[in-house]
Amino acid sequence: MKKTRVMVVDDSVMFRTLLINALSADSRFDVVGFAINAMDAMNKIPLYKPDVLTLDIEMPGMTGLEFLKKLLPKHPIPVVLVSSLNVKVFDALAAGAVDFVRKPDDQNGIRRDAFLATLINKVVVASHSRVRLPTAQGFIISDGAVTQKTAGGMRSFTAPAPAAGMAMGRTAGNLSLKGGNFSDETILAIGASTGGTEAILAVMQQFPAKMPGIVITQHMPPGFTAMYAERLNRLCKVEVREAKHGDRVQPGLALLAPGGMQMRLVRMGNGYSVSCSGSEKVSGHCPSVDVLFDSVASIARDKAIGVILTGMGADGAAGMLRMRKNGAYTIGQDKESCVVYGMPMEAYKIGAVCTQVSLNAVASTVIARLASQK
Question: If you placed Cys at 307, which of 118, 190, 255, 294 could pair as Cys (CB 3.0 to 4.6 Å)?
Answer without folding.
Answer: 190
